Every structure is written in C-alpha cells, then in structure tokens.
C-alpha cells in the first residue's frame, strides 16, 4: 500500500531506489500558488546514510517489504552473531555490519528486534535499557554520591560508559542503549 508524504511521522518507512529508509525529520512547505511539498531527512536502514529529499505532498511512495521480529541473542562464534526466533527456533546469523556497535551492550540471552528487508536480515535494535555488570573501573570513593563527578567504566559486554564516582567493579547498572549512558545502579556487590 503506498504512503504519501502527508502521512509521514518520525520512523515512517519508505523505499527509495530499492532500499529501505526511515524518516528522521520532515517539514511541510506551502509555496504561494504551487502545491505543497514535504522536505525530509531520511536514513538508509542498511548503510546508515542520511539523505535530504523533497516530495510533492500528494506523491505516492512505496512502503518497503520491511519486517521486524523479536529474537534472542545466543552467542558470537567469532565471525557472526547468532540469533534465534523464539517461536520457530530458526537461527539467523548476522555479521558485524548488521550488528554494528550494538554488541557493546548486548549480553547473551537478550531479546532484540531484528529487522528484515525482503526477507534478508539487515540490522538489529536493542531494548532501550539493559542491566550489565561493571567489570573494570577505578575504585569508588565513599561519600562521592552527590558531587556530580564521573569516571570511565567497562561493562561485561565490553562497552565503555561514564559512571558516577561511587560505582565499583561488580555493581550492576541500568544503561540506556540509545546513547550508552548510565541511568542507575541496580545492585551493588557490597
């Protein structure tokens, strides 16, 4: 079913030159006597490239054959990341290009959304928040709970984040995967 630029909202999916894109920004523009146009920024869901395009407001655009499946991350075999569909138990193998930097905050057994375009896996989306154990950081200092300072820490999956000074190795943290930021300490080893 075609979609028109008047129906755009953030995240709308369209197909351009045979590839899937997501709408990042859009702006309706009405010029004097002419028809309205929609100026957009769209992101290629395969390559990550961002384009700026202008469409007539009534133009019909193709929606991509795009599907998203909930899958469980099983393991990395050294060259590929293995995911399993929890309904059919079918396994999907994704390479580094599809996973990108998501592996930095992707522990085994995590449920993720795997995107498919024309039946081919093209990428993943992590849940907004994950809980991971700190494996490396400078020792915490008692009393440094409100000073506002921060230090670097490494979590069990290899991701590096900035954390408050009171965080210690072994603490479990809630992390926002969208920007790799510390949210809160979930549990402490002490």
Automatic annotation (TrEMBL):
Molecular function per GO: translation elongation factor activity
Entry keyword set: Cytoplasm, Elongation factor, Protein biosynthesis
Pathway(s): Protein biosynthesis; polypeptide chain elongation
Subcellular location: Cytoplasm
Cross-referenced SMART domains: EFP, Elong-fact-P_C
InterPro entries for this protein: Elong-fact-P_C, NA-bd_OB-fold, Rib_uL2_dom2, Transl_elong_fac_P/YeiP, Transl_elong_KOW-like, Transl_elong_P/YeiP_cen, Transl_elong_P/YeiP_CS, Transl_elongation_fac_P
Pfam family, one: EFP
One GO CC term, this protein: cytosol
GO terms (BP aspect): peptide biosynthetic process
Family: Belongs to the elongation factor P family.
NCBIfam families per UniProt: efp, PRK00529.1
Main function: Involved in peptide bond synthesis. Stimulates efficient translation and peptide-bond synthesis on native or reconstituted 70S ribosomes in vitro. Probably functions indirectly by altering the affinity of the ribosome for aminoacyl-tRNA, thus increasing their reactivity as acceptors for peptidyl transferase.
HAMAP family: EF_P
Protein's recorded name: Elongation factor P
């Amino acid at each position: 079913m075609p979609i028109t630029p008047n129906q755009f909202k953030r995240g709308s999916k369209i197909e351009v030159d045979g590839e899937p894109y997501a709408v990042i920004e859009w702006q309706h523009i009405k010029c004097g006597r002419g028809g309205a146009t929609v100026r957009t920024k769209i992101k290629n869901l395969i390559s990550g490239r961002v384009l700026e395009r202008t469409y007539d407001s009534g133009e019909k655009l193709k929606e991509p054959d795009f599907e998203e499946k909930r899958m469980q991350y099983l393991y990395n075999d050294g060259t590929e990341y293995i995911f399993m569909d929890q309904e059919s138990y079918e396994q999907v193998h994704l390479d580094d290009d599809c996973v990108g930097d998501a592996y930095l905050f992707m522990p085994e057994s995590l449920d993720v959304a795997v995107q498919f375009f024309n039946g081919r896996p093209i990428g993943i989306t992590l849940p907004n928040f994950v809980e991971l154990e700190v494996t490396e950081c400078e020792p915490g200092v008692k009393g440094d709970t409100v000073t506002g300072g921060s230090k670097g820490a490494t979590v069990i999956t290899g991701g590096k984040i900035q954390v408050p000074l009171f965080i210690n190795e072994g603490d479990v943290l809630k992390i926002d995967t969208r920007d790799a930021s510390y949210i809160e300490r979930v549990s402490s080893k002490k």
